[in-house]
Structure formats: structure tokens, C-alpha cells
Amino acid sequence: MTDNTMPSETGDTSCIALPGNRQLGSIFNNDINGLLYVSSGEYTTPDEYAHMVRDMLGYGMSVLAQNVGMPDPVIYRSQVATGWAKYHAEVTQRTWPAMTPAETRHQSSVMYRLLEQGTDPFTLTIAECRKRQVPIIASYRMNGEDWYDNTWMLSDFGRAHPSWRIRRTAEERHGREAVNLHEGNAPSEFTGVLDPAIPEVYAHRMTIFREVAECYDIDGIEFDWRRWCHMISDPLQNHAILTRMVRETRRMLDEVAKAKGRDRLLLGVRVGGSLDTPETVANYPGADSPGADLSCAELGLDVRTWIAEALVDYVCPSLFWPRLPGVPWTREFIELARGKNVGIYPTVFPLPAWAEDASAPVQDSLAARRRHKDEIVRAALQCYEDGADGISTFNWNNDDPDSPLRGTLLRRSASQDYGRACGGYSRVNMQAHRVLAHPDALRALLDADPPSDGLG
User: Fold this and answer.
1) CA–CA distance, 316 with 126 (Å, rounded to integer)
2) 2-22: pLDDT as tens digits
3) CB count, 10 Å around CB of 3?
4) pLDDT tens readout for residues 393-446
5) Residue 67 backbone dihedrals phi, psi, to 5 degrees
6) Is 62 left (phi over 0), alpha (psi -120 to 50) or beta?
7) Domains and CATH numbers, the chain
């Protein structure tokens, strides 16, 4: 099985009745390789991967926005984009030389194993979502720089056109903004991502989006413009190009929906935490990535036009790495959407600032779990008080400490220090996430004493 052998469309598209744009509840954005990372590796089976998806769906999200591409490479079979496995090990080793060959090959091994068995991670995810009536959105990191300056090397298209990368500004080259640089390395002329202002890059991406809409049984597409910080060259001038991409994708999704006999397909966007306000003025509590929490305007995202023309169905304002209690400036987006059929779903990130304070580690305990639970709930309730239609999430730990697979997977929840590697952290996330779509249930959870199941 090769990466570009396309599947037949899976599932029964008639079985999903999409809620209204303001009734989507909670939108769970899952990392492209989150499940690949914790899988058992070269012996992974489709049943194992499907079980991991079921564990994830146990969080109780209303909509799953599965990150499937960056936007190239992708974790599904494609005739347009590069498969995730092709260059992953090579680029990972180049980016993190201290990793062992077994570590760098792990995700590629999983992908190849699934492809050999006639499937892929996204196909398996769609099938599980259909069984549970959870709408499934194909989410794309629109210029993810997770491999820093090497990210472009993950795709055939990037390797063929290295000069089409976005150039760093003079300020970035002089090291005043080092957020996207890896471990203090000197800034290079180019970033690690391609520039959609170049017509060929733009066209390549539009082909990727059409293919996934036509060939996979999805309920829509999401553009994640929050991972990372270089969305397009000269964003204050080139924002119209990204608006054209949104407008043309809206038109394409309407065409595909009609061809499939669907009422509609959703188009969602993840955007900056404010419309125009710079990070230094916004001063988001808990944020710890200087230069990363850019406004929509600084990223080149004309959200005003997207909402005014109803080009998008939902908007997820988000900070970049928003440790609690940080939340976006939700009220600005609510005002924009007033009278429009566009839902606003601010992003709540589950990581407490104190859980990453290495100078004052906190041990896992009932008190730590209560503290964590209360911070998540208060952040979500603040978003509702600001007028949010629901809550979106990003990178919530999807390790189920009670999963039957726990003995076979590379589970992360083993630390006694309270944080992302702690079993208590996962339990709190699972408990809080199940009620994120329900403000009354959140208030009840805040007042619960003793806490309900999962915290004890």
C-alpha cells in the first residue's frame, strides 16, 4: 500500500445532522501525531488505533477537529500531498539529533503499518466518529513550524521549492523575536514554512483541500492559523490573499456538499486571541511565549471580513501556548458576530502555569487536582460570560489512565509531579472536558465538594 492509494469514501454521510453554527458545543482540536506518538509502534493494528480514537472520543467533545496536515504532509492517503511517514524520521533526527533512531522512526513505523493494512489514521478516525455520531472536521495547520526551520523538508512540494519559504523580517533576523527558533540557534534567512502569497503554493494548498473534501467522509474543514506565527509574507499587505483562500474554500465546500447530497459542510478557523491588539498590550495571563500571541491583524487574518460575509461557520480565537488562566479576548469576536450566523468558540488550554514551574514542582494530590479543575472551569465560564457560543480546546492530554490499552501503549501519564505526564492531570482533563459545552454543569463542577468521579 503506497501513500497515494486513495480509499473509498467511508461511512454514511446521511447519518450526521450538523447542529447550527452557534450550537456546536465543544470543538476538540487533536494534534496531528498525538495518537501516533503514544501507539505501540511497528506492531500497531487498525484495531489498536481505532481503540485509541474511542478513548479520545470518551472526552465527550461535540465536534472533533482532527489535525490532518500542516497542510502538507498529511496523515491520510493522498494523490496531492506527501504522506506523514515519508520524511518524518529523517527530519525529526535532523531537528533533534539527541533522539535515538528508534524514537525518530516510531511515528513512521505506525503510518507504514496502517498503510500496509489498507487504511490510515484519518480513515480510522472518521469511522469511529461516524459510529458515535460525532461530526469530524479535517483541520489543517496552515503553517505549522513544529520542526522549526526544517519543517518545509517534510513534504515533496517543500523540498522541490525551498526558495518559496517565507523570509524572516529584519527584526527576526537580528534575534528580537526568537519564538520560532530552536534552542537558541541563530536565525536563518528563511522560516520553515512556505508562502501562500506565491501562486503555486496557494494552488497546491487549494488542491489539498478539495481532495480531502471530495474523497473523505468529513463534515467540514478547519484552518488552524494559530500554529505557528508565519502565515504569509508581509501579512499587513497580503491579508487579502488569505481572505481569497477562505472565500474559495467556502465556495468549494458548498459545491462538494451539493454533489454529495449534504445540506452543508462546515468551514471553521482558529485565529489570534485579539483582532488588532498587540500581545504586549493584551498581556494575557499565563502566556509564556513572547512574540507568539500575535493579533489577527498581525497574522494577516481579516476576521472582520470573514464574519461580515459569513464565509466561515465558526471562529476559535486562541492564544499560542495559553497556560491557565489565559483566555482570548472573546468579547471582540462576539461583537463582530452579533446578528451573523457565525459561532464563536474561544479556546481553553488545559495547562496550569504552576504545573510548568520547575522551580516549585507540585506533587499529584487531590488538592492539586481540585486546583487544576477549578482553573479550567473558571476559564471556560469566563468565556461564556463574555458571550461565547461554546468552547474549543487544543492539545488536551488524551491519555485515558483507565484505558484497556494502557499496558501496550507509550502512555505519558507516569510522573508524580503534577503536569502533562501525570495521571491526575489526565483525569481532571477528562472530567472537565465532558461538561465544557454546558455552563450549568461547569458551575456545578466548580462547586462540587468532594469532587465527582475522576478526581479522587
Assistant:
1) 22
2) 455 676 554 444 457 899 999
3) 20
4) 988 866 666 777 655 665 555 678 898 888 888 889 989 999 999 999 999 999
5) -65, 120
6) alpha
7) 13-447 (3.20.20)
